[in-house]
Write a sequence for this structure.
């Protein structure tokens, strides 16, 4: 997966703004933003590649200025010509996606490669992705692993996840499986919900790790709390059947509902089945005189 360098010129935060002052607040922030842009333009005009990059980012994202791909392209090109690796990465993304320029995946790959050669981890990840998918260069999984590994060694979570996926199909007990688990742990500890879900699956199934339902549930919860639908559904299953957590139908329903709200078919089926089961149990209990009794 391609990644662009992200950032912001500034961050505006307001814990509470009275409604009638909202317009004034917005106007004040806009004025500050314009002032900040002018300061950056002065620095950029003097050849400050960091300012040039930040201007390109502002115009490309539309967060700190009106979106304008032509201006973003201009400032990214300026910064890239001074060797700014972040600008080279984002300029490459513009060519890869055809933003403000005709799409050119070959030009994008060359820009990623130049930035990657300086040690930029985002660029290294993008070179790895290019080799893996054959975009702008001949497909070569060995080269993809090489570049992903460089990025992962610098803490790039996305690259670590890609490596885990590439090694995922390795035979049990092989060096490849050990590498899959190692990179999966790196990505999971880095907070990636997909990696957390995959790690939970390995704990539950005992693949490359000792089987541990408690650990599986712990990692499912981490991913579920980030909105990962598959983890929400599987955490629901864990609660329904008491696997790694105390059995709790209410908790199972809660997690099934969250996953079903994201239109996950498995969750919708599990939700319907559990609701039907609880309804049947209630009917049976009522028919047999279950529930509280009045003392006689």
């Amino acid at each position: 997966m391609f990644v662009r360098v992200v950032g912001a010129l500034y961050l505006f935060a307001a814990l509470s703004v009275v409604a009638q002052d909202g317009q004034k607040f917005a106007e004040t922030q806009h004025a500050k933003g314009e002032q900040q842009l002018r300061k950056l333009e002065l620095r950029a005009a003097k050849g400050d590649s960091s300012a040039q990059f930040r201007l390109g980012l502002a115009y490309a994202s539309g967060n700190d200025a009106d979106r304008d791909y032509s201006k973003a392209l201009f400032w990214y090109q300026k910064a890239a010509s001074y060797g700014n690796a972040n600008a080279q990465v984002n300029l490459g993304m513009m060519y890869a996606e055809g933003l403000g320029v005709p799409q050119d995946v070959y030009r994008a790959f060359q820009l990623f490669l130049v930035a990657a050669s300086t040690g930029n981890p985002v660029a290294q990840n993008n070179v790895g992705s290019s080799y893996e998918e054959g975009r702008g260069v001949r497909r070569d999984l060995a080269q993809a692993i090489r570049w992903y590994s460089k990025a992962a060694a610098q803490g790039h979570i996305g690259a670590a996840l890609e490596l885990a996926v590439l090694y995922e199909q390795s035979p049990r007990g092989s060096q490849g499986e050990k590498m899959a688990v190692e990179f999966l742990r790196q990505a999971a500890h880095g907070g990636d919900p997909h990696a957390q879900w995959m790690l939970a699956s390995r704990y539950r199934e005992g693949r490359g790790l000792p089987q541990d339902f408690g650990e599986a549930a712990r990692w499912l919860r981490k991913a579920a709390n980030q909105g990962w639908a598959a983890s929400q559904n599987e955490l629901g299953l864990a609660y329904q059947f008491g696997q790694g957590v105390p059995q709790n139908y209410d908790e199972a329903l809660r997690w099934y509902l969250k996953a079903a709200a994201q239109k996950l078919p498995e969750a919708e089926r599990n939700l319907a089945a559990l609701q039907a089961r609880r309804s049947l149990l209630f009917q049976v209990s009522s028919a047999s005189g279950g529930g509280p009794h009045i003392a006689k």
